[in-house]
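Course assignment 3, question 2. Fill in each field.
Student: A.L.
Task: Predict the tertiary structure for the chain below.
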Amino acid sequence: MKKIILLGFIFLPALIFAKPVQQDSYSVHEQNCRTIMEIAQVIMEKKQNGLPLSKALEENDDIFKKIHNKNVERLYNSITRDAYEQPNYSTPSMKQEQLNDFTATTYLGCMATHD
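Answer field:
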């Protein structure tokens, strides 16, 4: 998880798309952390639904072909690795708890990188 936090902080500028100039750095950072959290949620949901790691990495590769950004590629791969390192659960309640914990930890870790 620490890898995601560090990569999120390093690669956050790569996730900034057209934002109004008047936004302060905290607002931009917070929005980027929400985006990272959403990415983490999608990846974990796919893992929980049985998507093999090899297929997840293929999906990442398809995204990278469109984006052409090494920073985003590293971020996606880091989140994917972290998700697939987590234990597997079979009950819906445990899956939901895992999803909540994973996305919250990702978001909070990202936010902790803002001064």
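Instructor remarks: The first helix runs from residue 2 to 11. DSSP finds five helices and no strands in the chain.
Grade: pending
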